[in-house]
Amino acid sequence: MGNASRLLPLIPLIPGISSLVLALFGRAMGRAWAGRLASGAVGASLVLAAIGFADVTGAAPGQRAITVQLFEWVAAGSFHARAALVLDPLSSIMALVVTGVGFVIHVYSQGYMVGERDIGRYFSYLNLFIAFMLLLVLAENLLFMFVGWEGVGLCSYLLIGFWFERETANAAGMKAFIVNRIGDFGFLIGILMTFVVFGTVSFAEFLPLVPTQDARVLNAIGILLFVGAIGKSAQIPLHVWLPDAMVGPTPVSALIHAATMVTAGVYMVARTAPLYAEAPMALGLVGAIGAVTALLAATIALAQEDLKRVLAYSTVSQLGYMFLACGVGAFSAAIFHLVTHAFFKALLFLCAGSVMHALAGETNIRKMGGLRERLPVTYRTFVMGTLALAGIPPFAGFFSKDEALWSAFREGYFLLWAAGLAGAFLTALYMGRLWILVFEGRFRGGSETAQALPESPPSMTWPLWALAAGSAVVGFIGIPHHSWIETFLAPSLAVRTPRPSSMYVEASLMILNVVIAAGGLLLARRVYSAEPGLPETMAKEPGRLHRLLREGYGVDALYDVLIVRPVLLLSRVVLWRAVDRSLVDGSINGWARLVRVGGEGLRLSQSGNLRLYLFFLFAGVMALLGWMILGTTWAS
Amino acid sequence: MIPVQHYLVVSALLFLIGATGVFFHRNLVSIFLCVELMLNAVNLTLVAGSRSVGNLEGQALALLVIVVAAAEAAVGLAILIALHRKRETINVDDQNLLRY
After folding, report:
1. Which of B19, B95, B100 faces A610 most closely, judged by CB atoms?
2. Is the domain of A385 the same as that of A509?
3. Is the Cα torsion angle A451, A457, A463, A466 positive or negative in sign?
């Protein structure tokens, strides 16, 4: 535990400083150096995070947490919040994932964003995001975590709206920000309630006090905090912002809206696991929302035509699995799935970016096909990502999804398990659909995209290989019954003793998972290979179910009618017309009119008639004199 | 000896006659003369007051008023001539360039 405590503050600080430098001098620095500085800063953080991780693993199991206080942040009466960082198994593994995936995506961005204006601004935002994400992960208390939480939200907004001259990008950025605000409201109240109940917001201080509290109070806190997680991690019903966020640059979708920021909600739930373990109702809600999201988002992904939107709904669905795992008390399985998902989903998004790069920005999968020969590296890595996501062994997703589903089954949550299993089938199905429609068959695009670029440059392909390698091997940190990650995370989480279970049941369920996943992929292959024109005909004559799924169950339309329109109406009629125009403008203009009318009247006295002036002068003097004389007479 | 009230009544009458003249005359020269009349009404008050109280301050002030009135007449008449050269009239009712 030697040097880690001194180096710990540097992990978020280096990207933060780099972001500032890029913001100020990014333009002068030139395109190439901006990318190098940004990547280098995240690379440095990665090295430090690895050192910290090595320190944590090297320490004795009982002493695997170091806290570094930066300064006393808030001291108001009995309320204390420290600006402090903590490195323990949970935060060290998260820091490693954030900096690792972040570094790879920074390198990829150098190739992907070539030819874009404002490259310094882009990397400045990206570095700032990494800094805030690390702050969120390493924060020692809820309030400091909230700083990172809001910071990543800000960076998400800025990066979704990076191409600010596009109307859709601005709208999507605002949507993400506003929907997150709803969740953050709950989160903030949860933090306040934590303070009111426990008198502290520090994880190390309030989590041990949890058993002393009533379950109802804990349920309330748990649900409020989870509302924040619903917003940040795009769970139903606040999932609507994530698919729209795909208008941002693709590396941003990979980093923020797949691998790291959206998993912050899962991380927060795992971080406060001892609280949730004592709050059965809150935990039940977490599991239920997770299962519903996992299933419904997968069905929506089935009918999307935009490559990135499929992946976005897939992300929503996979985040649902993580919450499902949390909900059955298997927090380590949730974090395990978070880690593996970070690799393969970032990989899939970067593959999507590579495809868009080659097709001059085309994202509609109906206009793709047959890219296998043209993009060999992208094809191979995409297949690896697909197999990992679908849950085909030995790729990473198999282990983590199996662990999550098995935990649900073992703990007796059969409904959640069934929903998860159905979702797994759909996951394989929609990924198989993507695979076939994008890479197999014949090219269906127009001539303008057919002539476009061949395979992406090395700066984009080696990140694909790096993440593909991760997707292939990272699952082995969680082999059932010899799970390294479970034992490693145990000190940070509330570990329930698992119910006794049969090896045979476990093994047969594992086989069932593989069969389901393979079945989904094969079904997609049969349907879409046999009939490559199917998406085209479905788009022309959509069935009712297809249309329902394509519109995402009409949630956006529902919110439009229930919330957006009433708020706009209220703003237009009451706030704008009544308050702003009548009251505020009215009072200002009223005063102006009064002064004007008064001036008009007084102006008439300036008649230019000298004799009249003199008469007024005389009359005034007389009046004053009379007042003085009569006043003194009457006073005495 | 004539009581001081008599002087005051006379000077008040003179002052009112002067003021009325100022208000109703249109010729600037007439207005000047009326102003002189008002000044002299004040002088009369000062001198009478001075005598009745028994010190010389009022009389000194009267001398000062005469000096100032002479200076004022010099400047005023100069303006008057300049005005007449410029606008060929000394009717005050025509001097209304600065009206609204």
Report:
1. B95
2. yes
3. positive
Distance in angstroms (rounded) separating the CA atoms of residues B92 and A304: 91
Whether residues A441 and A537 fall in one domain: yes
Chain A residues inside the 8 Å CB shell of B98: 606, 608
Nearest CA in chain B to A610: B92
Are A452 and A430 found together in one domain? yes
CA distances, A162 to each of A247, A282, A363 (Å): 9, 37, 18
Distance from CA of B93 to the nearest CA of A (A): 6
Crossing angle of helices A458-473/A89-112, nearest 10°? Answer: 150
Binary contact (B97, A608; C-beta < 8 A): yes
Give, in order, the Cα–Cα distances in Å from A307 to each of A122, A160, A252, A313, A581.
Answer: 23, 17, 15, 10, 46
Residue A559 exposed, middle or buried by CB count within 10 Å (0-12, 13-18, 19+): middle
**A524 within some domain:** yes
The arithmetic mean of pLDDT across residues A479-492, rounded, is: 82
- Domain extent for A573: 554-586
Question: In which band, very low, low, confident or very high, does the pLDDT at A312 lie, cut at 50, 70 and 90?
Answer: very high
Instruction: Indicate yes or no: CB of A608 within 8 angstroms of CB of B24.
Output: no
Same-domain check for residues A372 and A493: yes
pLDDT classification of A475: cutoffs 50, 70, 90: confident
Distance from the Cα of B1 to chain A's closest Cα (Å) equals 28
Q: How far is B34 from chain A (nearest CA, A)?
A: 13
